[in-house]
Amino acid sequence: LMLLAGIFFLALQLVLAEECAKYKVTNCEECIKSGPGCAWCKKQNFTKAGEPDSVRCDTVAKLSERGCTSTDVINPQSVAIPKKNKPFGKSDTTVTQLRPQHVEVELRPEQPQTIKVDFKLAEGYPIDLYYLMDLSFSMKDDLSNLRKLGTKILDELNRITESARIGFGAFVDKTVLPFVNTHPEKLKNPCPDTNSPCQSPFGYRHVLSLTGDRELFKAKVTTEEISGNLDAPEGGLDAMMQAAVCGDKIGWRNVTRLLLLATDDGFHFAGDGKLAAILTPNDGECHLTNNKYTKSTEFDYPSVAQLAQKLEENNIQPIFAVTKKMVPTYQALSKLIPKSAVGELSDDSSNVVQLIKEAYNNLRSQVILEHKNLPNDITITYDSACDGNQKKSQREPKGRCDNVQIGQQISFNVTITATKCFDSPQTVEIRPLGFTESLKVTVSTRCKCECDEPGRKDDCSGNGTIVCGICSCTKGFLGKNCECKAEEKTTQDLESACRRDNSSAICSNAGECICGACSCHGSDIQGKQIYGTYCECDNMNCELNNGRLCGGNGKCDCG
Questions:
Q1: Contact status, residue 383 vs residue 390, Cβ threshold 8 Å
Q2: Distance between CA 223 and CA 195 in Å, rounded?
Q3: Which terminus of the chain, N or C, has less C-beta within 10 A?
Q4: What are the two backbone dihedrals, phi and then psi, of residue 96, each rounded to the nearest 5 degrees?
């Protein structure tokens, strides 16, 4: 079915390219804007006496039939010009996985242009992992194990890449009822076991910026203590939002960015803040002061769509490390957040190292090509050419290849179409989701006619210049050859005076409109005369009787 749809689309494009549905065309630019199948003939004296300039606008084939040579045909085509195309591989401190990096595209409206985009997954691409942990009381064993496993996480990342860094943050929930017990004693020690070390509840706290120092990570995690709250869902989305938008404080590099959320429970989302009379929607901005989320009790939780947008904008791929009972919940969440993964966390988080490795490999092997900042007058579709047994997709809103291996090169045909002309160039960003590289596409439209005819003094009755085969009159003159003085009239006014009504042709197609009056053509037929205000009459269009006009007993006058 997809193949048939592709064939139908191609056939439709071919049909449109062979047709010219011109409408009220008076010059070259109007012709070019009429459709991708229209071309303009700039040849001087191409039109016959009485013919409108619109006959210059037609398909290339029909113009050729009328004697317009290829050198006189104006027919701009869409074109793509690569401006930056670095080869795959490492150079200095950068790794190139996407080619090209910058393309300029000049589009004829409704005439698509295809760009071939290649991607090659590099080995050892740098990784930043920010570990975001739920510190509610039920995660007590998990925190204990993280203290032991912290260095192993960084060691495992360093086996995957030459440059890995790890950071740490923690969350509980908004410190207001009904999420947290606000009794003064409970705010000091919210844990059920009052004999255990327990810290006051908080919304989100950034503990350690991304670092390659494994011992510093271990030391920072060791100083953390468990906390507590009242209800089951936690403030994980609040914490993820701040970790995503506070890039400078977290220390994200321009590399693969992984945000791991470790929890054993669900999450609050937009609207839940009303339970605590928090009505102001989350603004998606950074509000970290002294590494604490200071607007936790002022802004509602973010919506899933809002969080997904911010994660995508900042090239962050989330990994949800959750206990078995929460896997279905976070799998449903993952479907709403592109390039995210869910891993089942053991009850004490002892398998977190293996979970991170598997989740990273799954995310890395999935390549999704998409665009950002698409103007209203431009459309983009993707054809994905993946190796192996994957079906080739066509005309999709995104490009996608799964199970991509290190060193494997895949390709996407990106088809860009402008629906109409626009004055200034537009910029579109195309990038593989979750990767920091992108393709910059600068789009402009080809709606101007480039006609460089040599001029002569007697062109256009000496009152204008030839532009693309037709006269462009100086101010104060009108007419096909600029032979008429304007006297506050337009060319349309003069042509209207040469029509019997709005539906009839100028001078009945039998004469030429000169300054608002019809000058009738002569006839190749001996004795035939064409006359009348609109050249609507002749002396031979009467019935014959015995082979003679008017039976030979009269004179034919206008039929």
A1: no
A2: 17
A3: N
A4: -100, 120
Report yes or no: 556 and 542 within 8 Å, Cβ to Cβ. yes
Token pair for 142: 């998990």
How many whole angstroms separate alpha carbon 172 and alpha carbon 199?
11
- To the nearest 10°, report the CA torsion of 186, 190, 196, 202: -120
Residue 377 contacts residue 85 (beta carbons within 8 Å): no
Q: Residue 235 and residue 267: Cα distance in Å, rounded?
A: 6
pLDDT at 391: 60
Q: Mean pLDDT across the chain, nearest whole number?
A: 88
Q: Would you call the peptide bond into 338 cis, given omega within 30 degrees of 0 as the criterion?
A: no
Q: Nearest-CA neighbor of 144 among 419, 319, 349?
A: 349
Tell me the one-letter amino acid at 460: C
Question: Which run of H or of E encompasses 144?
Answer: helix 140-160
Assign 443 to helix, strand or coil: strand
Here the tokens at position 33 are 């804007």
Residue 91, φ and ψ in degrees, nearest 5: -145, 120
CA distances from 80 to 83, 87, 107 (A): 10, 19, 8
3-state helix/strand/coil string of 256-317: EEEEEEEECCCECCCCHHHHHCCCECCCCCCCEECCEECCCCCECCCCHHHHHHHHHHCCEE
**Residue pointed to by tokens 């592109």:** 338
Q: What is the dihedral of CA 417, 421, 424, 430, to 10 degrees?
A: -10
Check whether 16 has a pLDDT greater than 70.
no
Lookup result for tokens 């040849």 = 43
Name the residue type at position 302. P
Region for 218 from its dihedrals, namely left if φ exceeds 0, alpha if ψ lies in -120 to 50, beta otherwise: alpha
What's the pLDDT tens digit per position in 100-110? 999 999 999 99
Please give the full DSSP string across 193-216, using - where no structure is assigned.
-TTS--PPP-SEEEEEEEES-HHH
254 contact partners, CB below 8 Å, separation of at least 6? 436
State the Cα–Cα distance between residues 140 and 199, nearest whole angstrom: 12
Q: pLDDT, tens digit, for every residue of 272-328? A: 999 999 999 999 999 999 999 999 999 999 999 999 999 999 999 999 999 999 999
Diameter over CA atoms, the chain: 131
Closest to 322 in 3D by CA, of 355, 340, 341, 345: 345
The span from the CA of 379 to the CA of 107, in Å, is 12
**Is the Cβ–Cβ distance between 358 and 299 less than 8 Å?**
no
Let me know if 525 is exposed, middle or buried by CB neighbors in 10 A (0-12, 13-18, 19+). exposed
Strands 256-263 and 127-134, by their bridges, are: parallel
Cα(54)–Cα(505) distance, integer angstroms: 12
- The percent of the chain in helix, strand and coil, each rounded to the nearest 5, is 25, 30, 45
User: Which of 373, 298, 348 is CA-nearest to residue 147?
Assistant: 348
